[in-house]
Specification:
Layout lengths: L4 H17 L14 H17 L4 E7 L3 H7 L5 E6 L3 E2 L4 E3 L7 E10 L16 E11 L10 H6 L4 E6 L3 E2 L7 E6 L2 E6 L8 H14 L8 E6 L4 E2 L3 E7 L3 E8 L1
Parallel strand pairs: 1-11, 3-7, 4-14
Antiparallel strand pairs: 1-2, 5-6, 5-11, 5-12, 6-7, 6-8, 9-10, 9-13, 13-14
Helix pairs in contact: 1-2
The structure holds 2-oxoadipic acid (OOG) and magnesium ion (MG).
Magnesium ion binds next to strand 1, strand 5, strand 6 and strand 11.
């Protein structure tokens, strides 16, 4: 750790102001020496500001669980961020693009946790604690100029989390290699759920490991976004739809 608590609070405020004011900011690394522990402390302080405005934690998200995302963003290690109720968009609902800086959307698999996970129990079985799986999309909106950031930058920025939408839940089942198709305006991206750590269930094991290391609680009712299966696409006005073969579809509508 290299930053004191005032510096942590100031950097969290800078990122929070960028989000609420809908403007970008420069890489924190340009004028600060931020290590990975500092980055998670900034993320915690950033999320605490949202909770102070009455938001509630509803889950967690993983980032960079697929090679496509690592290659797109030039980052190659898993990251974890927090989801709040204010980020949730109902299936089929509108997303106001004016409240976002330069949003992108990506196809994801969501899991639902049905019991509290004891992070201190070395035998904790996270998969046994999951009761449902669903097709999902995440809207990411890096607060950094041109979506360019370092590894510590993106962790501090709550892993670019902005919004997410979840389709119909199904009972937990094998989703190891299902075709993924996302259409946003003229753009269609295709891939497979296998892009997520060979099988999205492996993201749950990575999540447990990250939550233990970062002391992030995993409780009954929490939603987990396992990470994008393909590179992200710019979110434009109109419908965005993701279909995962055998699991179902989910949509949102960008409003300019
Ligand atoms: C960081 C978020 C990565 C994913 O699913 O891999 C992520 C970013 O790409 O801005 O959410
Ligand atoms: Mg994502």
């Amino acid at each position: 750790m290299t930053l004191n608590s005032n510096e942590i609070a100031a950097l969290a405020a800078r990122l929070d102001d960028a989000q609420t004011g809908v403007h970008d900011t420069l890489s924190l690394a340009d004028d600060n020496a931020v290590d990975i522990d500092d980055a998670y402390r900034i993320q915690e302080a950033l999320v605490a500001r949202r909770l102070g405005r009455g938001e509630r934690i509803v889950g967690v998200k993983l980032g960079f669980t697929s090679k496509a995302k690592m290659a797109q963003m030039g980052v190659s290690d898993v990251i974890v961020g927090r989801l709040t109720d204010a980020m949730q968009v109902e299936d089929g609902a509108d997303v106001d693009l004016h409240r976002l800086i330069h949003p992108k959307i990506e196809p994801e698999v969501a899991y639902r946790i049905a019991c509290d996970v004891d992070l201190d129990d070395p035998d904790a079985d996270i998969v046994a604690c999951v009761d449902a799986v669903a097709p999902a999309m995440e809207i990411i909106d890096s607060r950094y100029r041109d979506f360019r950031f370092t590894y510590t930058d993106v962790v501090a920025d709550n892993t670019s989390a902005a919004a997410y939408v979840i389709g119909p839940w199904a009972g937990l089942r094998d989703v190891a290699d299902l075709e993924v198709r996302m259409t946003v305006g003229e753009t269609t991206v295709t891939g497979s759920t296998a892009a997520i750590f060979d099988d999205p269930v492996n993201a749950l094991h990575a999540l447990l490991d990250m939550c233990r290391r970062r002391r992030i609680p995993l409780g009954a009712g929490d939603v987990v976004l396992a990470g994008a299966a393909t590179a992200a696409a710019p979110l434009t006005a109109g419908a965005a739809r993701c279909e995962i073969a055998g699991l179902g579809a989910v949509t949102v509508k960008g409003i300019a």
